[in-house]
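Sequence in, structure out. First:
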Amino acid sequence: MTDTPSTSPTGRSFEELDALSTEELREQAFAVARKHRDVRFFWSVLRHLPNADEAEVLDGAPNSVGPTVDEAVALWREMTGHGYQESAPLLRAAFIDYLMKHPG
């Protein structure tokens, strides 16, 4: 019996994705979610950020949610001067799970 990386239906292994930085995972997951207009994914990510209460004021129009979320995340990171802090492990897991389940 050989150890082979677990490959998802999208052809990407957990090991391959786990080797990426959190920011690379975010960029790829956001690109896939924008392509599929997956608003639910964006909101699930925002709920895990430290300033999640402020996300309620974002425009939820399907054609603008991707750029709006990207801008909100970038603004939050710039204003706090931090990365994902204590949310990083949870967000990494969410990004990897999303990328393994959804084809690009």
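Second:
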Amino acid sequence: MTEKTGTFVVTHAEDESVVLRDIDSAQVHTLAANDGLEIHDVLEATIAPEPPLEVSWTLVDVEDRRRVELVDSDLEPTTHSKDLVANADVGDLHQHERAGTGEVHVFRVPAAHVEEAARDVLQDEETIARAARLEAVRVEVRRAVDGEDGVLSVRYLPD
């Protein structure tokens, strides 16, 4: 095997090892040592397999390191976000750029499942990977219930 350069999310971290997930391929790599990495860290890095078996990896170079913060907000989605999905079917996703930078994903869910949907988003490894692709450092989940339907917005914020 050869070195691999890319963007990786730390999905598991212990004192002795770290599990990285490549955000593009979803391939998982186990580092044989932990040099202070924590879950939800995002690395722009180069890794290389450790000889002789090449089953674990080592960090060769870290170009950038940032942490993605997950926030379960008590705020409601913005009026603009609610308007975007006002006539949408349950489950339809609408994406729009946030004023300035960042991105917002908004969708309708049954009112009875709003809390469960918010928890799912906050626990999903893909949420962190998407934040890494969007160069966000903060993911904010907002929700509102209006009658039989709820609205969930996931805000990917760069700062």
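Remark: The first helix runs from residue 79 to 84.
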